[in-house]
Amino acid sequence: MKRKWLLFSIITLLTWGIWGSLIEIPDKMGFPATLGYIVWTLSMVPCALVAGFLVKWNIEINVKSFFLGSIIGLLGAGGQLILFEALRLGPAYIIFPFISMSPAITILLSLIFLKEKATNLQKFGIVVALIAILFLSYMPTDSKAKGFLWVILASFVFFMWGLQAFVMKFANKTMRAESIFVYMTLMGLILAPIAYYMTDFNGAINYSAKIISLTFLIQILNSIGALTLVYAYRYGNAIIVSPMTGLAPLITIVLSLIIYSTFPSIILLIGLILATIALIILTKD
């Protein structure tokens, strides 16, 4: 297949978009997001097993590969844990749009260090995609804010996730995508105890098999998207893949509008239109 990066990018876009429209369900049913993180790390395992099987478990274990794979995993999973704390202290309507712009970091680093290039049309599409991501991440005003630590934490997540995508592309030059994902899974599992200790056990928590199973099914969409994202970076330029997969909220919002039968605000409507334009442009050679 000539444009494998596009296929894998679209799979990530769809799985993450569907995941985003369903992720709040467990929390609303009494299963905290921090415990959802633990279930997410477990959902990574079957995907890692598939990845390992595809390369007959010929996983690179040299120092460079171990370092790069571990960094990618720690940046992604660690950023998620920091995000939990940032959202506890600060307003989501500022935090989410801010961290959603992390592809800008990936693009900047890839242009400088990887010398990636794009056509003028693709450059325009990248700009439109970044603007669309900002609009799609808009959330209703939330007055909750405790101090300014959340600003620092959100900044960490912003840089960590942007850097993660860059390192993922960089690592694909010297190691298998399957190896990268196995390391990502291991680092996520290693950080799982932190998520457990971050959980507020003062309130009632739903530990039923039904909610745990549902959470697993939802989270495995995230894991599948993460696996195909690694493949997308293997075959495609980071300056294109990063903003394109960052448009996953487009799918999330469309599905949420269908599920909850609501009409989007003007801001979200603009975001939907811009995202559609960006996707059309970015999928062209």
Main attributes of the structure:
285 residues; mainly alpha; 76% helix; 0% strand
Q: Main beta sheet: strand number and arrangement?
A: none
Using the CA coordinates, give the radius of gyration: 18 Å
Helix content: over 70%
**Structure annotation, total helices:** 14
Overview of the molecule:
The chain is an all-alpha fold and 285 residues long. The chain has one domain (4-200, 209-282). Helices cover 76% and strands 0% of the residues. It contains 14 helices and no strands. It has helices at 4-22, 24-28, 33-54, 63-89, 92-99, 103-113, 120-136, 149-171, 177-190, 192-198, 209-235, 238-245, 248-260, 266-282. Helix 3 (33-54) packs antiparallel against helix 9 (177-190), helix 3 (33-54) packs across helix 11 (209-235) and helix 6 crosses helix 8. The longest helix is centred in the first third of the chain and has 27 residues, at 63-89. The model has no long low-confidence stretch (mean pLDDT 94).
Give the topology.
Elements: H1 4-22, H2 24-28, H3 33-54, H4 63-89, H5 92-99, H6 103-113, H7 120-136, H8 149-171, H9 177-190, H10 192-198, H11 209-235, H12 238-245, H13 248-260, H14 266-282
Helix pairs in contact: 1-11, 1-13, 3-9, 3-10, 3-11, 4-8, 4-9, 6-8, 6-12, 7-12, 7-14, 9-11
